[in-house]
Amino acid sequence: MPPIANLILYCRAGFENECAAEIADVAAALGVPGYCKAKPSAGYVLYVPHDPVHAADLRNIGVDQLVFARQVVLGVEFLNQLPVTDRLQAVLPAIQRLGREFGDLRLETADTNEAKELSVFCRKFAAPLRQALQKGGVAVGTAGTPNLHLFFLSSTAVHLGWSIPDRASPWLMGIPRLKFPTGAPSRSTLKLEEAFLTFLSERERADKLKPGMSAVDLGAAPGGWTWQLVKRGLRVAAVDNGPMAEALMASGLVEHCRIDGFRYRPAQPVDWLVCDIVEQPSRIAALMGRWLAEGQCRNAIFNLKLPMKRRYEEVRRCGEIIEAAVAGGPLAGRVRFKQLYHDREEVTGYVGA
Ligand SMILES: C[S@@+](CC[C@H](N)C(=O)[O-])C[C@H]1O[C@@H](n2cnc3c(N)ncnc32)[C@H](O)[C@@H]1O
């Protein structure tokens, strides 16, 4: 493989600064200091190591350990001014230099409005590229091999790179394409579904979300998150002064508690605490910390609505609040955050044994 030139991080447009600050910290801690190239609202960040000798260590960075990056791609070459009449001729040799066997082929763009047209181009380019790869002796679909990424900035400029399946997002552009489920009371439902997919493995989902288990949903109305839990057969105490969707109440699995989520306490410890209350992040973090530290829930998923400024710092501060609460216990060091695709100016947190 040719040497790694940079790390390409895909993120939500508008969160480039947060993504850059975070990767600079993580890479420096790993002994790969460098600098970021990030344009406002571009939807991606490039991290360039100061010393190419250490660039190989960037392979150790997994997307799971980052809050603001949806995908991490090890960039090897930037191809600019591709000939419009024959892009394949320019792209194919560069891919052949990169490797001969790949798990998957991903033609991607940043997740921005401007790039929407470009994704149409990517879809059209995929079939001829696959054919050319096959003819050119590059196999795609070999399990256990790196994924090949072509991250297009325009139809004539592309970053070529690869990712390690274990350390990267399994989804194209790092975005899970979830369908809005019929019958769910609100679009927020997709946040919790994505959180389950992001933070829990298939095995964990089967083990930790079983019929008969118990949950509390703070800030539940109209019930999108409760709906995800009920769908899996959990009994839910839905805490909110607002009205819950009637169909959900008819399931018989939901108890609607019209009280303040900051005062509610369960009679017995529950398997899950979920919380989507719109409040200051540090207040939510303190609330989650208290439930977890007192053993009132075994797992928690919660949303933090971020302020306009110093958002990365705020997430770190909230992490510290929860870590301080659970210090010395089995949940110490197990606080994770991710800005999910279905999150907006928010991040989602998960703590679980
Ligand atoms: C973003 S909505 C929740 C949406 C819900 N997760 C869904 O999927 O349908 C926030 C909810 O928090 C509730 N809320 C705000 N402050 C609260 C508090 N202190 N205690 C309980 N609920 C609260 C609001 O009434 C509102 O229904």
From TrEMBL:
<dbReference type="GO" id="GO:0006364">
    <property type="term" value="P:rRNA processing"/>
</dbReference>
<feature type="binding site">
    <location>
        <position position="260"/>
    </location>
    <ligand>
        <name>S-adenosyl-L-methionine</name>
    </ligand>
</feature>
<dbReference type="GO" id="GO:0032259">
    <property type="term" value="P:methylation"/>
</dbReference>
<dbReference type="Pfam" id="PF01728">
    <property type="entry name" value="FtsJ"/>
</dbReference>
<comment type="subunit">
    <text>Monomer.</text>
</comment>
<feature type="domain" description="RlmM ferredoxin-like">
    <location>
        <begin position="6"/>
        <end position="72"/>
    </location>
</feature>
<feature type="domain" description="Ribosomal RNA methyltransferase FtsJ">
    <location>
        <begin position="186"/>
        <end position="279"/>
    </location>
</feature>
<feature type="active site" description="Proton acceptor">
    <location>
        <position position="305"/>
    </location>
</feature>
<comment type="similarity">
    <text>Belongs to the class I-like SAM-binding methyltransferase superfamily. RNA methyltransferase RlmE family. RlmM subfamily.</text>
</comment>
<keyword id="KW-0489">Methyltransferase</keyword>
<keyword id="KW-0808">Transferase</keyword>
<comment type="function">
    <text>Catalyzes the 2'-O-methylation at nucleotide C2498 in 23S rRNA.</text>
</comment>
<dbReference type="Pfam" id="PF18125">
    <property type="entry name" value="RlmM_FDX"/>
</dbReference>
<dbReference type="InterPro" id="IPR002877">
    <property type="entry name" value="RNA_MeTrfase_FtsJ_dom"/>
</dbReference>
<keyword id="KW-0698">rRNA processing</keyword>
<keyword id="KW-0963">Cytoplasm</keyword>
<dbReference type="InterPro" id="IPR011224">
    <property type="entry name" value="rRNA_MeTrfase_M"/>
</dbReference>
<dbReference type="Pfam" id="PF21239">
    <property type="entry name" value="RLMM_N"/>
</dbReference>
<protein>
    <recommendedName>
        <fullName>Ribosomal RNA large subunit methyltransferase M</fullName>
        <ecNumber>2.1.1.186</ecNumber>
    </recommendedName>
</protein>
<feature type="binding site">
    <location>
        <position position="276"/>
    </location>
    <ligand>
        <name>S-adenosyl-L-methionine</name>
    </ligand>
</feature>
<feature type="binding site">
    <location>
        <position position="188"/>
    </location>
    <ligand>
        <name>S-adenosyl-L-methionine</name>
    </ligand>
</feature>
<dbReference type="InterPro" id="IPR040739">
    <property type="entry name" value="RlmM_FDX"/>
</dbReference>
<dbReference type="GO" id="GO:0005737">
    <property type="term" value="C:cytoplasm"/>
</dbReference>
<keyword id="KW-0949">S-adenosyl-L-methionine</keyword>
<dbReference type="GO" id="GO:0008757">
    <property type="term" value="F:S-adenosylmethionine-dependent methyltransferase activity"/>
</dbReference>
<dbReference type="InterPro" id="IPR048646">
    <property type="entry name" value="RlmM_THUMP-like"/>
</dbReference>
<feature type="domain" description="Ribosomal RNA large subunit methyltransferase M THUMP-like">
    <location>
        <begin position="86"/>
        <end position="163"/>
    </location>
</feature>
<feature type="binding site">
    <location>
        <begin position="221"/>
        <end position="224"/>
    </location>
    <ligand>
        <name>S-adenosyl-L-methionine</name>
    </ligand>
</feature>
<feature type="binding site">
    <location>
        <position position="240"/>
    </location>
    <ligand>
        <name>S-adenosyl-L-methionine</name>
    </ligand>
</feature>
